[in-house]
């Protein structure tokens, strides 16, 4: 299982590029999984849904299942947030996992740079596992692989051929 990430500042286009990369990988008949880190409280079930009512009643784990998909919701109840490697163990043998966020974990990452003129905000300066960037302007201080924003095929080929 290959694990690859996209990181960037807020509103840099991380989800957009994750979507494009995932779609291309899927078109190559790969089994793709994704993990998205959220920095805030979130719910995947909502008020008045049965799963929400079960959770509000006190269930620490809820599984929602149908003929099309299933999801597991686990309340952490003051436990530590799971690390990326713990979440990877939850997956069912994908060929590749695209990770959005988790910038401080050690997997290889591509940084999305929306505002290339704001050099003080480059994440690659502090995060050594950034192995490529996506920016429409060449970043001279970055000596590794660089891609233009519309080069999804090249980006996917790079990810697939990158040796970890």
Task: Please explain how this structure is put together.
The chain has 164 residues and is of the alpha/beta class. The chain has one domain: Rossmann fold (3-Layer(aba) Sandwich), CATH 3.40.50.300. Helix content is 23%, strand content 24%. The strands form two sheets. Strands 2-5-1-6-7-8 form a six-stranded parallel sheet. A two-stranded antiparallel sheet has the order 3-4. β3 and β4 form a beta hairpin. α1 packs across α4. The chain is globular, with a radius of gyration of 18 Å. The termini are close together.
**Stretches with pLDDT under 50, minimum 5 residues:** none
Mean pLDDT over the full residue set: 93
Number of helical segments with 4 or more residues: 4
CATH topology: Rossmann fold
Quick gist of this model?
The chain has helices at 14-27, 50-57, 84-88, 152-161; strands at 2-8, 32-36, 61-65, 70-74, 96-100, 109-112, 130-134, 145-147. It is of the alpha/beta class. It has one domain (2-42, 79-161): Rossmann fold (3-Layer(aba) Sandwich).
Write the layout of secondary structure elements.
Elements: E1 2-8, H1 14-27, E2 32-36, H2 50-57, E3 61-65, E4 70-74, H3 84-88, E5 96-100, E6 109-112, E7 130-134, E8 145-147, H4 152-161
Parallel strand pairs: 1-5, 1-6, 2-5, 6-7, 7-8
Antiparallel strand pairs: 3-4
Helix pairs in contact: 1-4
Main features:
alpha/beta, globular, single chain, two-stranded antiparallel ribbon, six-stranded parallel beta sheet, 4 helices, 164 residues, Rossmann fold
